[in-house]
Design goal:
CATH superfamily of the domain at 5-102 and 111-165: NAD(P)-binding Rossmann-like Domain
Radius of gyration: 20 Å
CATH architecture of the domain at 5-102 and 111-165: 3-Layer(aba) Sandwich
Number of strands: 15
Largest sheet: 6 strands, parallel
Number of helices: 13
Strand order of the largest sheet: 3-2-1-4-5-6
Shape: globular
CATH topology of the domain at 5-102 and 111-165: Rossmann fold
Order of helices and strands: EHEHEHEHHEHEHEHEEHHEEEHEEHEH
C-alpha cells in the first residue's frame, strides 16, 4: 500500500494556515502537519482544518507540532520525526503588511523605500529553517514563501537556498490570462502566459498596470502559437488595476495562497506542471518554471535566454532597493532606498554579510517598533 504524501507547513501565520487548510481539503492521500511556535494556535488551526474537511466529505490525516525556528536543533528533530516529502516555509520576522499598520503618512514615507531594505526580516528565519533542514537529513523538497526573489540567491552562496519560492511573479499571471482570454473571446484554459518579473514588478503591476522603471518579460501563447506581437500588451496590462482589479491587503492573500498551492499541489500529487515562481534553484527574481518529476527547470517565453531573464530580474531587484547580491551572499542595498530607512527609522546598512543578518533583523525590528510608537496618532 502506498504511503500518504507528507507535507509539513512550517509557520502558522496567515499564509501558512491558508495553505495548510487547502492542502487538507483534498481526496488525495496526504498527511499535512502544521508547525508553529504556539501550541494553542497550531492545535486550534489543525482542528479547524480537520473539522472543515470532514464537513465537506474529506478524511485527511492532519497533525500539528511546536517549535521555534530560532531553536535549530529542535526544529531539525521535528522535521526528522515527521519525515516530510515537502516542506512549505511560511515564516518571516515581519510580514509585508506590518508597515501598513503605521499612521498613513508614516506608512507612505517608509513604503517609498520598497521591499529590499527589509530583507533581513525574511532571510534570517529562512536561513535558520534551512539549517534545521540540513541537520535533519531530510530529502524533502523545500518551498519558501518569504521574499524568495532575494532570499534564495543570497542563501545559495552558502548552500542553504530552498528549492523554489511562491507568490510574487505568480500573483499577476491569472489577471493577465483573464485579460487576454476576454480580449480574444477564449477560455482562460486556452491562454498560456509566460511572465518574467521581479517582486518589485509583480507588486507594481496590479497597482499601476505597468512595470515602471524596471524591465519585465512577457510571452503569450494561444493554441501553441506565440501571439504576443499581435496583442496590445500595454493596454491589456493597464486593465489590471481597473477592470481586473481585485481585493488586496490581508484578504487578498487568498491570491498568494493560491500561488503557493499551484506549486505545492503538483509536488504533492507527483504530476508535471508549468508554474510561475521566484527563486527556483536559487536564482534571482521570478520566472516560469516547469515541474518535471519533482525537479525544476526554467520555461521562459519563446526566444528568451536565461541570461536575458536574469538581466530583467536584476533591473527589478535594483528598483526594489537591492543593488547587488554578491557571490558570497553579501547584499548591497540601493543608496536611495537606504536613505529613506535612515531618515525615517534611523537604520543604516549600506551592505550586509550573511553573518550580520541576524543582528540586522533584530535592529530593524527594534527601530521599527520605536518608529511606530513615535508616529502613532
Amino acid at each position: 500500500m502506498n504511503q500518504p504524501r507528507k507535507i509539513m507547513v512550517l509557520g502558522a501565520g496567515d499564509i501558512g494556515r491558508r495553505a495548510f487548510h487547502e492542502l487538507a481539503h483534498s481526496a488525495a492521500d496526504r498527511h499535512v502537519q502544521l508547525v508553529g511556535r504556539d501550541e494553542e494556535v497550531v492545535l486550534r488551526a489543525a482542528n479547524l482544518t480537520r473539522f472543515c474537511a470532514v464537513q465537506r466529505g474529506y478524511a485527511p490525516t492532519v497533525s500539528h507540532a511546536v517549535t521555534d525556528l530560532t531553536d535549530v536543533a529542535r526544529t531539525a528533530e521535528r522535521i526528522a520525526a515527521f519525515a516530510p516529502d515537502i516542506i512549505f516555509l511560511a515564516a518571516s520576522y515581519q510580514s509585508w503588511w506590518v508597515i501598513s499598520t503605521l499612521e498613513p503618512a508614516a506608512f507612505q514615507r517608509v513604503y517609498a523605500a520598497n521591499y529590499g531594505p527589509w530583507l533581513p526580516m525574511h532571510l534570517v528565519p529562512v536561513m535558520k529553517a534551512m539549517e534545521a533542514v540540513r541537520l535533519s537529513g531530510t530529502q524533502a523538497v523545500v518551498v519558501n514563501a518569504a521574499y524568495p526573489d532575494a532570499v534564495h540567491p543570497a542563501l545559495a552562496a552558502i548552500g542553504l537556498s530552498p528549492d523554489i519560492g511562491i507568490g510574487n511573479v505568480a500573483n499577476n499571471v491569472p489577471g493577465i490570462t483573464a485579460a487576454v482570454a476576454d480580449e480574444l473571446g477564449r477560455s482562460t484554459a486556452d491562454v498560456d502566459v509566460r511572465l518574467v518579473a521581479h517582486h518589485y514588478v509583480s507588486h507594481r503591476l496590479s497597482r499601476h498596470g505597468n512595470s515602471g522603471p524596471a524591465a519585465m518579460g512577457l510571452g503569450i501563447r494561444v493554441d501553441g502559437r506565440d501571439i504576443t506581437a499581435e496583442l496590445d500588451v500595454e493596454a491589456l496590462l493597464n486593465r489590471l488595476p481597473g477592470q481586473y482589479r481585485r481585493t488586496g491587503g490581508m484578504p487578498g492573500q487568498t491570491m498568494t495562497a493560491a500561488s503557493a498551492l499551484s506549486v505545492l499541489e503538483p509536488l504533492a500529487d507527483g504530476r508535471d506542471a508549468i508554474v510561475h515562481a521566484p527563486g527556483a534553484g536559487g536564482a534571482l527574481g521570478g520566472f516560469p518554471v516547469a515541474i518535471e518529476g519533482g525537479k525544476f527547470r526554467p520555461a521562459l517565453p519563446d526566444g528568451m535566454t536565461e541570461e536575458e531573464a536574469h538581466a530583467i530580474n536584476v533591473s527589478g531587484q535594483i528598483q526594489d532597493g537591492i543593488s547587488e547580491i554578491r557571490p558570497d551572499g553579501t547584499v548591497v542595498f540601493e543608496p536611495a532606498a537606504m536613505a529613506i530607512m535612515t531618515k525615517e527609522l534611523g537604520y543604516e546598512c549600506p551592505e550586509m554579510k550573511l553573518s550580520e543578518a541576524e543582528g540586522r533583523a533584530r535592529e530593524i525590528g527594534e527601530r521599527f517598533a520605536a518608529y511606530r510608537a513615535r508616529t502613532a496618532g
